[in-house]
Amino acid sequence: MTHAQFAAFSDNAVMFASIVYALAFLAHLAEWAFVRSLPLPAVAEPVAVGAGGGLARAAARVDLADRPDAPAAAGAHGRGSDEDRELRVEKLGRIGLSLTILGCALHLAGLVGRGLGSDPIRVPWGNMYEFTLAGTFGVALMYLVLLKRYQLRWMGVLVTGFLVVILMLDQLELYQDAGPLVPALHSYWLMIHVLAAVIASGAFAVGALTLVLFLVKSRAVQRGTLQPRGYLARLPEAVALERVAYRVHAFAFPIWTFAALVAGPIWAEYAWGSYWNWDPKEVWAFITWVIYAAYLHARATAGWRGKAASIIALVGFASLLFNFVGINYFFGGGSLHSYAGG
To answer: Tens-digit pLDDT profile for the chain (342 aa)?
Structure first.
């Protein structure tokens, strides 16, 4: 295949990955819609979601015959109907997960094709379009890697929806034809620096989504507005959500430290002859690191756990996004990284 054919293959793979992610989003959306028809737990305790994994196991089985408002003949027939609905919910969840895995594979194929579509062949993150492509792949990969360990399937509808929106914007607003790298990017430290940043950013995104759910659910519980059959009620306890988010951030922070404070300066010295140039992207990457360090410190400090620490982490994620998008738009040619804006 020629470079042009690989570039076309990359564009098609990304398009199909977006379609598959959209189908995964619809499957997870249907999963959550059907789970509302399952009987409520005998004790309103949503913590079972985090412990059990799938949404069908999250909704504790209740014998309808024991409920005062149930018809007398609801016994065996009611249980069988509930089991059928649980199987349907579980099937939809598995379909959504399988489609997410397929979308991630197509996403990876699009990234690889992008690198092979350039002449000469290079790593596929030389501009904003490509870094967004790599960053969204990092989100999908981190979600799948952490899925089993932290029982994150309940986040499938949010992660796939996020991926569809960002990939759509990437294609519409940031797309650039495949081409050679600018001279400053001709270094193997580009691969190391950006790869570490992509992994950390993907994990930070998963952690930020979890913290948003934590804050929303905590607020609903405090105000007494938590709907027993709603999405929030089927999630793990708020404290469990916050704990998962902390662990994901604790995983991502050392990787971001390496990307921003080790690999980045080494690459800067190679490209521009100095480890630190007070470039806007360098400064903002350090600001982002400080905010996340403050979050991890606050999380370990009495009186800051929960809402206060979570807000700091979300400010850190906003800083991360601004470092990626805002610096290019607001500082433009004044940044040594202006090539990233393309």
So the answer is: 888 899 999 999 999 999 999 999 999 999 888 877 776 554 444 433 333 344 444 443 333 333 334 444 444 445 557 677 788 888 999 999 999 999 999 999 999 999 998 878 888 887 889 989 999 999 999 999 989 888 888 899 999 999 999 999 999 988 888 877 776 666 777 788 889 999 999 999 999 999 999 999 999 999 888 888 778 888 889 999 999 999 999 999 999 999 988 988 888 787 777 777 778 888 889 999 999 999 999 998 877 888 899 999 999 999 999 888 777 776 655 454 555 544
How far lies 126's CA from each of 68, 89, 123, 174, in Å?
64, 42, 7, 12
Rounded to whole angstroms, what are the CA distances from 47 to 13, 41, 212, 229, 260? 39, 11, 17, 14, 37
Judge whether 242 lies within some domain.
yes
| Residue partners of 107: CB distance under 8 A and separation at least 6 | 13, 14, 17, 133, 136, 137, 140
pTM of the model: 0.81
Task: State the CB neighbour count (10 A cutoff) for residue 173.
Answer: 10
Cα–Cα dist 270/264, whole Å: 10
On whether both 42 and 77 belong to a single domain, the answer is yes
Question: Tokens at residue 177, please?
Answer: 């034809």
Does 144 map to a domain? Answer: no
Cα-based distances in Å from 10 to 7, 111, 169, 182, 248: 5, 7, 17, 21, 30
The boundaries of the domain holding residue 114 are 1-139+149-177
Residue type, 309: A
Q: Count Cα atoms within 13 angstroms, Cβ side, for 43.
A: 3
Clarify whether residues 171 and 205 are in a common domain: no
Total domains in the fold of the chain: 2
